[in-house]
Write a structure and sequence with these properties.
Elements: H1 2-31, H2 35-47, H3 49-60, H4 64-90, E1 92-93, H5 96-116, E2 121-122, H6 124-147, H7 162-193, H8 198-223, H9 227-252, E3 255-256, H10 259-280, E4 284-285, H11 287-306
Antiparallel strand pairs: 1-4, 2-3
Length: 307
């Protein structure tokens, strides 16, 4: 039964992501806002809904290992697999806003996370600090978007009516969240049956499961020529995961870390810097760099399992 639910979850993720991208791109076109901004905000927050649900539930139930490792593992997955897979397909262009603003911010908040968990805990005050950070970030992104509306955009995007755009976004989001939950629950049940630890499940199965919306959405966006939305989704989700998800989880219930969590955050910081360097080179992540990202993730998985 768990394997059947896993399959149903994948189907919901794929179709939900397809509708979500079309609805979001249509809204961007109607409002004359670059699709990359939609990727950094609406799409990033929507596809991070599974991570938010899993981490908040884990934090409330006292399973801090899953709450923290889910975010760290998801961000590593976003940066190496989501961006890597899209780049390997056809290369991913780096919009100037992401290169100058969002990628450096991602490096900065990952460094901040390392500082916060150096004492192996995230207190309520630190959680509130992270929540303040996401509020400031969203204000900056929206204000810059309003200043840089696209007046003459020749990009061919299917424009839906406002009502249909909302239906596509809401329906796609519902399918993504339900599909993500089905994948996580069934995959976690399968993993537990094999006797894996909660930390390992959080870093691997749960992290990959909750990041599938980002992966599928970004790949669909890349195939539709929306590479800005694809990159914005991956980077925006990583920022959202640290600032909002860990901020909310820590504010509700203090999160206890571990030496392994500190080590994984150091790895995440290194991965964040590497993806920034790839994106900065020629202002594009080329296929060979995408393949390198995928190989790095495979190496990390081996390390996480054998340690």
């Amino acid at each position: 039964m768990m394997y059947l639910l896993l399959l149903v979850g994948f189907v919901l993720l794929v179709k939900g992501a397809d509708f979500f991208v079309e609805g979001s791109s249509s809204i961007a076109k109607m409002l004359k806002i670059p699709s990359v901004v939609v990727g950094l905000t609406i799409v990033a927050m929507g596809t991070s809904a599974p991570e938010a649900a899993v981490s908040l539930t884990a934090s409330l139930s006292g399973n801090n290992d899953i709450a923290l490792s889910n975010v760290i593992g998801s961000n590593i997955f976003n940066l190496l697999v989501v961006i890597g897979a899209c780049a390997a397909l056809k290369g991913v262009d780096t919009p100037s806003d992401i290169l100058k603003r969002d990628l450096p911010i991602n490096i900065g908040i990952t460094g901040l996370l390392l500082v916060l968990i150096w004492d192996c805990k995230i207190s309520r005050i630190e959680g509130l600090l992270l929540l303040l950070g996401i509020a400031v970030y969203l204000i900056v992104v929206v204000r810059q978007a309003l200043k840089n509306r696209v007046e003459n955009d020749e990009e061919e995007i299917k424009v839906l009516s406002p009502l249909m755009s909302a239906v596509y976004i809401v329906g796609g989001l519902v399918a993504i969240v339900i599909g993500g939950d089905l994948v996580v629950d069934s995959a976690s049940g399968i993993a537990t049956a094999f006797g894996l630890s909660q930390t390992l499940i959080g870093l691997t199965i749960v992290a990959m499961g909750t990041s599938l919306p980002e992966l599928v959405t970004s790949i669909v966006a890349t195939k539709k020529g929306e590479t800005g939305l694809a990159l914005g989704n991956a980077v925006g989700s990583s920022i959202f995961n640290i600032l909002f998800i860990l901020g909310l989880s820590g504010s509700v219930s203090p999160i206890t870390g571990s030496v392994e969590a500190i080590m994984d955050t150091v790895i995440l910081l290194g991965v964040t810097i590497v993806t920034y360097l790839f994106a900065r080179s020629s202002e594009k992540t080329v296929p060979k760099e995408g393949i390198a990202c995928l190989l790095l993730y495979a190496g990390y998985m081996v390390f996480a399992i054998i340690r």
